[in-house]
Amino acid sequence: MNKNFTPKIIYFMCNWCGTGGAESASAHHLYYPENVLPYRVNCTGSLSTVLILRAFIDGADGVIISGCHPGDCHYEDGNFRERKRVATIKSIIESLGLEEDRIWFRYVAHGEGKRFVDTTTEFNDYIKKIGPNPLKERSDT
Ligand code: FES
Predict the structure, then answer these.
(1) What span, in angstroms and rounded, lies between the C-alpha atoms of 41 and 19?
(2) 14 Cα nearest atom in ligand 1
């Protein structure tokens, strides 16, 4: 593990559940790594494959997506559609030479502040272990 490496992590979270988890963490004074950059989306099902791939092309070392738990999506099945999309994106990024686990999908509910913090911390530690996005290194040469 490179101790000097601070990963750039993009965290897409749905407006209804994932964001509530982050707010709950804040309300309970639970801290998550400051290099995790949160982006709120209305529903994870509205995220496009292109937007997520763009994050990697633009240098993100990892991407987490948090949606509502099964049965709780406010748009019926956006969370399931996104989970399936992530499976496809894993195979695309692998074909680009990135580790498939540079993207995670996790269910985080409103009120699950600890789960939100545990997810960000675990993911941050994992990305630190595997190192920088190889696409970034290729574009620097
Ligand atoms: S509204 Fe939360 S994942 Fe759809």
Answers:
(1) 9
(2) 2
